[in-house]
Amino acid sequence: MKAASNQRIAEVAATAELLSGAGVAHLRACDRRLDGRHLELTTGRVVHFGSCSYLGLEMDERLKRGACEAIERFGVVFSSSRAYVSVPLFAELEELLVRVVGGFPVVVAPSTSLAHQAALPVLVDDGDAVCFDFFAHTSLQAVLPALAARGVHCEPIPHDRLDVLERRAKRLAATHRRVFYLCDGVYSMHGDVAALDELYALLERQPALFAYIDDAHGVGWAGRHGAGVVLGERRLHERMIVALGFSKSFGAGGAALVVPDAELGRRIFACGGPMIFSGPLQPAQLGAGIASARIHLSPELTVLQGRLRARMELFDGLAAALGVEFSARTRAPIRFVEVGSNERAAAMARSLLDAGYFVNASAFPAVPRGHAGIRLIAQREPHARGRAEPRARARALSRQRRRALAADATDRRRVRRLNAEARRRRAALR
Asked: What total number of domains does the chain contain?
């Protein structure tokens, strides 16, 4: 076990060295002031396609004002555990969030990762079992060793294979009181959306099955009031907990757990380790969060969502016309172009950087070994005019993708085959 861990760390360190050596990772922006869309790097000014702030709200004047006013009222830091006392802003934010998610209780946390660490050890009993999607976010999987140390059975499920989950849940239910399934609402690398209708149907068929969903990447751009791909489009199931992240579309920082009943929320708040021992969400983030929640509850949000959607549709059409293949056909504002090796991903990201576009070069452990590529993230662009910029971006992407794959026709065919297989599997589940 120790040797495997050391090998993994060595592999990740080598990948980090490769990407940083190519000048596409571990960078520092040189800007004195950010505009939310561009970065000044040592190579020059580039368009930022690596930000998960899908709606661009982090630069909204109302959020900035909310953050500044909260600091003026409550200071830069409120250095007390919430187990003892909270600033009044928590109550205001939680009341707004309850409206955003359709009336269900919420528990605010400092981050999505800490929300998972607080909730899962409280939710999962020693007599339960845990299944998790193979591509579930690292912040979810990071809690598994603590559960396993208590003797909880934990096992992976192939990505989005709810048929496999159903078979395993049936078998595990014979020897365990409950079976928890951990997955993402929107997967952060490829942007594919979980098969949620099928999951809800499976919950009805399997009474011992519970779902815990990280929908950090679905918040804001998706659903009524921006409540995400789960709660913005359907009600919370009685055997479901959803974690929402506020450092992406929401533009504010922090997270919240949405639970089916108030008693469970109180139990997580009272007993979850990070709720007791970690520092709370600080005043500036709370003030910005309140301002963002008000926007999410207003008619303005549908306008912002529509602008983002139109921008994505324009880019997708231009990319398709140029023969660019994405690994998933998704409505999420995330696109992934697989090129195979870490070296190709680094070279492609560097070429795009030199052309004026900063993208995320993605390799193991963010994606499986041998499936490296680049991730591009769409943002609402309030100042964009016409088709010129999306067309230039699509052309640059097409050109650099061809260069990355040109040296190996066999690898190019393999990537196309894997992309087609992944699309067929997702279509079969729907």
From this structure: 2
